[in-house]
Amino acid sequence: MSAPTGGSAAAHSFLSRFEGLKSRLPGAAAPREAAAASFAAAGLPGRGLEAWKYTSLQPMADASFHEPFSLLAPCEELLALVPPPALALDAPRLVFRDGRLRADLSNPPDFFSSFSTAPELDADPRPLVALNTMLAEDGAVLDLPAGVDGGTLLLIHLASDLHGQPTAAHPRHIIRLGTGARLDLVEICVGTGCYLHNPVFRISLAANAALSHVRLQDESTAGFHLASIDVSAGAGALYDGFTFNAGSRLGRAETIATLAGPGARIHLDAAQLLRGRQHGDITTIIRHAAPHGASRQGVRHVLDGHARGVFAGRIEVARGAQKTDGYQMNQALLLSPDAEIDCKPELEIFADDVKCSHGATVGELDADQLFYLRARGVPAATARLMLIRAFLDDAIEGLEDPAVRATLAHVVDQRWSEPAL
Amino acid sequence: MAAVTETLDTVRDLTQSGYKWGFETDIEMDLAPLGLNEDIIRLISARKGEPDWLLEWRLKAYAAWLKMEEPAWAKLSHPPIDYQALHYYAAPKKKPGPKSLDEVDPELLRTYEKLGIPLKERAILAGVEPDPDRPPMAVDAVFDSVSVATTFRETLAKAGVIFCPISDAVREHPELVRQYLGSVVPAGDNYFAALNSAVFTDGSFVFVPKGVRCPMELSTYFRINARNTGQFERTLLIAEEGASVSYLEGCTAPQRDENQLHAAVVELVAMDDAKIKYSTVQNWYPGDADGRGGIYNFVTKRGACRGARSHISWTQVETGSAITWKYPSCILLGEASVGEFYSVAVTNNHQQADAGTKMIHIGANTRSTIVSKGISAGHSNNSYRGLVKIMPRAAGARNHTQCDSLLIGESCGAHTVPYIESRNPSARVEHEATTSKISEDQLFYCRSRGMSEEESVGMIVNGFCREVLKELPMEFAVEAQKLLAVSLEGSVG
User: Which residue is closest to A54 within chain B, CA to CA?
Assistant: First the structure.
């Protein structure tokens, strides 16, 4: 292989790390070499790509990311960042530190195995996925046999910088539910300092399986979170995804969900609360590849300070995916004159017997509602918070587990009470 | 059973007429040599007797165009266009710009008669042919590269309105043309606008002075006739403070197996309290049922609401062209200015359309409305692509967008690609889009009342488009409805 390139200092640091690490990485070398070549050629995705029109990785391009040194590092401080209602959940728990499983902090369920024991890598050319393929060391492999109810599982990711130097973690999680299997996955990402968390999820659901996947991205506001989530739902299967973004300086979750079997259902709800100079990008592609599928998507943004929210959601209906029902709603509250929202709700439809709709609204807090509260003696700041909470609650209240709702509510209060960056 | 007979007749009429504007006029043409280079641009400029500044402007645009690449982001696919295989100038052999209608080649007059375009100013004025359905309308007829006739110029001049071919305007009102040409769509704005700026041959110029309400509808009728030519017209319309004008353009082309290029630029300028209503019935030859032939329509249309409370409204019915690429836009600069976009785009057979609008809100309290209705049938693809951008100073801006797509048949595609960017918290932006097919219930209802399937579809489609059609000047709304029926024929059953 030729000398590492990749354009930016960050890309260079990833490629150098691969050169140093490759003999020790688990699994076959060929897919990783191929991913490295592809990443070296492409570099970090730039704004020239339509999929990155509104999100620039420039803020991380000049950083040099170091290998985390965390197998034995203490985690108490980081665990204390996890909202108490989540820690109180009576459920098996997987704790990852900087992309590696910490067995000492975890009590895994029996359907768990470590990615590092038998890595499954694929040839996905998207730059961030290639980066993950190149460097993934660990991750959760969850294999639920047919008919098994896996209950609730807590997946915690902790990350930090290393003596002030940025670090990077690239965990790869693989989740497979057999026919009729069920699992409620609650994922929480927290950390301190500057780091990159670049997880890749490969999720496949067999017929009539049901996965609820709640993601709480509450990373350090100096950190970067770039998640790539691929979902394939078989006949009658349900993927019920909910993402809440409150953390990171620059966060992006790109979900590609395919309704592969007839009658599959996909929910991709999301909410984000961004302040200071935070940037949050929710990018989704929902592919209706089989008939009688239904997809639902509600996305809410609350943007304060200089925050910038991005939503790019595409619903694709393939030829033959008749009787598809697709619905998408994107709503944004801009709280400050310097906040910005960019959205692109897109429909691409090749079948005639379908019902697809999307809507988007952008605006500020309703002056009438504020007046109503003020007229009843509620102080302005409280009134604003009440309305913001109500706006986010509409997104959160669809979640079934009260502990999960309490977790998210805790984060909203916590983030709102902090001074913004 | 008179009703049944009538129904059968209607259906037969519809199915046999096809593209009834597809004839070719046999007329002697003055053609520039094939290809595009600086000499061709000098030749066009010389033929039109243009001043040096305009030639320089064209050459600068040409230099910019050479450095640009054809845009590839639209959901369109076509074989590469050979820009060297076209005639960039084609004019009927007769001295251009006849002084009166009597001087116009009778063959041309017959052509326009066949197209149903009234170039008979005097007949109407003299009351010889009183036609209550057609109120007087001034028409500028552009045939290939030149304007062949402009009616009612004198009547309009009395009101202070200038309505003439843009090549006349360059000679007679150079200061106005120089001030406004390229001020909304700069010469290097995009690939097709740059090409147009380099080689544009004719088009209409409208100037409505301060406080004048244009006394009649203005209209331009574009006709591509010659083989292997491209049409590159340029329209410039200026409404000064408090002025108002309604303008309509129509277009057709002969039926041929080859593809022809049409790359127009339209610039609108509205000052304080001015109002411009710009309507288009686009009916270029769409190609045959197998996708052979048809016009490639790459158009840049943009209006600048420069003054406070100015108002620009785009209304369009797009049924023609093999490929449509157009995004009529409004730059809402003046405080409380208003932009509107009402569009019906129909694609059938192998037509492709990637069209939409841009509303750029710069001034405070600016408002925009977008209503787009896309209908896809056959093997066609129809995309709405739009941008609503709220700049930081646009406090209190409002936008409402409604995009509906209707699919007829299982081999077509309908796509919606809206971009919404807001940088002001007090702005409110709303976007709704739906995609559906004609419901079985609606069809059953019509069929059970004795309507044929085709008629039923026609009626349902007209209902679907009503919000847009009602924005058209009345007589054109009727024409547009008929056009919709013809465009969709063969798409059911």
Answer: B421
